[in-house]
Amino acid sequence: MDRARLAEFLRTRREALQPEDVGVPRGRRRRTPGLRREEVAALSGISTDYYTRIEQPRGPLPSEQVLGAISRGLHLTLAERDHVFRLAGYAPARTEVRADHVNAGLMRVFDRLQDTPAQIVNTLGETLVQTPLAVALLGDETAYTGLMRSRVYRWFTDPDARRQSPPEDRPAHSRTLVARIAEAAATSGPRSRADAIVAALLTESPEFAALWEEHPVAGPSCEPKRVLNASVGEVVLHGQTLLDPDQSQALVVFTAEPGSESHAKLELLGVLGAQHLSADSLAAV
């Protein structure tokens, strides 16, 4: 591990990134060029002290997971992310693992949608990042590990995963999910993460196995989506998708028709979510 070069590289990228690039208010007393260390730490989901020790440089060797989170927080390109891994003494991640790193341009769009329910997902149905309103609407989908990261796997193995969908909508949703994971498995091939999800579901879910035998194919769909939320009830949403073909990811933005009951419920969720975050912050003090 080249601690000095890693620290210098992270510092230069931090100072080059402006608050407006990541949706952070600039404030009146900002003297630091670019972002502050605590802002990068917050964007990366790690403590300020931990990030500071990496950049100084001192402290333990950061894990690949931490380096991936920092790379995302700094909006690094894939090439820059791989460079960070090399400086830390790790080999660059495999292609399908690198797909977890969100494209810097896609992140810049995402950062400007913090008052909107939006999230970035990959072809495996794994949610990589969510806005606060998306968390309030759908729950924290980034907290899962292993096969449970995939909403396809959760849908067919965890009864709780279906509670947000009205019963009459579930059969069509099941078929769509099977079609999408089948496409991902065909694209990535044997011994891929998609292939592992399919193999597990064929063993664990008779419903999935039956649908798999029908070879469903997913087409474009812009139909409204109904979501059952514990706080506000049923919300009718339209999903708009921005694709990043290079990294097999999509930015999904949920909107409700202006003036509708669902639009009012989204606004209420925004207030409830802000109150929840404030309560969490106070509890942590």
List keywords for this structure.
285 residues; 434 Repressor (Amino-terminal Domain); Beta-Lactamase; 2 domains; 5-stranded antiparallel β-sheet; globular; MLTR_LBD; Lambda_DNA-bd_dom_sf; Helix-turn-helix transcriptional regulator; Cro/C1-type_HTH
Short description:
The C terminus is likely disordered. Helix 11 crosses helix 12. This protein has 285 residues and is of the alpha+beta class.
Describe the protein in words.
The two termini are 35 Å apart. The chain is built from 13 helices and 5 strands. Helix 11 packs across helix 12. It has helices spanning 3-16, 37-44, 48-55, 64-73, 78-87, 95-98, 104-111, 132-138, 151-157, 170-188, 193-204, 206-212, 261-284, and strands spanning 118-122, 127-130, 225-229, 233-244, 249-255. The protein has a 5-stranded antiparallel β-sheet. The protein folds into 2 domains: 3-93, 434 Repressor (Amino-terminal Domain); 105-284, 2-Layer Sandwich (Beta-Lactamase). The chain is an alpha+beta fold and 285 residues long. The chain is globular and about 55 Å long.
